[in-house]
Amino acid sequence: MSPNSLITAVLVGVALFGATHMLAWWWLERRNGASTGTRKPRLFDVALGFVANFFDTLGVGSFATTTAAYRLRRYVADEDIPGTLNVGHALPTIAQALIFIAAVIVDPVTLIGMIAAAVIGALVGAQVVSGLPRRAVQLGMGMALLVAALLFLLTIFGLVPGGGEAIALSGPRLWIGLAGNFVLGALMSLGIGLYGPCLILVSLLGMSPIAAFPIMMGSCAFLMPAGSLRFVARRRYDARAAIGLAIGGIPAVLLAAYVVKSLPLDWLRWLVVVVVVYAAAGLLRSAATNKGGDSPLKGTVP
Predict the structure, then answer these.
(1) What angle do CA 134, 26, 74 make, to 5 degrees?
(2) CA–CA separation, 291 vs 23, rounded Å?
(3) Are 63 and 85 in contact (CB under 8 A)?
(4) N or C: which end of the chain has fewer CB within 10 A?
């Protein structure tokens, strides 16, 4: 099969995966018997989905900013935030993948291999995280957000590797890339976004940083739907918040991808660092005071 045919197959796979995800999500919600009122998104959820996914398409990432917003507004229970992120941002990420896989040239073997590694990692991670108690989720997410803040700081100060010009990986570098993306896929289930770490991973391996976009977005387009359905099945997410993120996110992706070509993002990254560190501190503080979090719990944020 030619490289163009492989890329076309990936695009078709992303589109079919997206359609399957929507149908499975709808079916699981009906099976769970949730009322219409509990699924109706708030204006805040839609607006947050638009803003987070607009900048997500530019490479800033949506997980940290969305988590910070929910922590500040206390709209979603702490233990439900990972599932809400994975479910709500799945469809906008699929739109991103379709755009960037078609627009950016990457070796098909490298692209498909990295995507597959991330999906397997996400399935393993979601299986574990979706059954964790509240305190464990708070601790995991708090540490993950601190890592995200550090990655933002590295970008601001120009300490992120510049990368090379390669569009493919081979030999030991390919195996390192596969192992790295497996770990990043698993960490998605803890609420840490894959974009920043994947950009650094790809650059360290000598690839062009632009090659990270179809890899990281293609990875998330497959792993987020695959992992998110486990959260839906176990009711470990906020349905109306996730629906709002999806509704607001898809038009934002289209706007960012086709209208906005470049923006000075350093000021935004500084703001994100401050908010993310605040949210991480809140999660870790809650985990330190939550002594009764030894069993899976559903409820409101204390």
Answers:
(1) 35
(2) 39
(3) yes
(4) N
What is the residue whose two structure tokens read 């708070």? 138
What is the pTM assigned to this prediction?
Answer: 0.75
Averaged pLDDT for residues 89-117: 91
pLDDT in tens, 14-51: 999 889 889 999 888 888 776 555 678 889 999 999 99
Closest Cα partner for 290 from 110, 78, 113?
Answer: 78
Task: State how far the Cα of 32 lies from the Cα of 190, in Å rounded to an integer.
Answer: 24
Helix (H) or strand (E) segment spanning residue 184: helix 171-188
Query: What is the Cα gyration radius of the chain?
Result: 18
Instruction: Phi first, then psi: give them for residue 17, nearest 5 degrees.
Output: -65, -40
Q: Determine which helix (DSSP H) or strand (DSSP E) holds 31, and give its type and residue range.
A: helix 3-32
Quick: pLDDT tens for 108-130: 999 999 999 988 887 787 677 66
Angle at alpha carbon of residue 76, lines to 124 and 282, rounded to 5°: 85
CB burial class (10 A; 0-12, 13-18, 19+) of residue 44?
A: middle
What pLDDT band is residue 95 in, cutting at 50, 70 and 90? very high
**Residue written as token pair 């289209």:** 254
Question: How many angstroms separate the Cα of 38 from the Cα of each of 32, 33, 121, 237, 238?
Answer: 12, 10, 31, 12, 9
Mean pLDDT for 136-158 is 78
pLDDT at 167 over 90: no
Cα gap 44→241, rounded to integer Å: 9
For the record, the structure tokens of 28 come out as 């699981």
- How many residues can be counted in the chain? 302
Asked if 150 and 217 touch (Cβ cutoff 8 Å), the reply is no
- Could you please report the per-residue DSSP string of 193-247? -SHHHHHHHHHHTTB-GGGHHHHHHHHHHHHHHHHHHHHHHTT-S-HHHHHHHHH
Residue 207 — φ and ψ, nearest 5°? -85, 160
Location of structure tokens 């719990």: 297
pLDDT at 294: 45
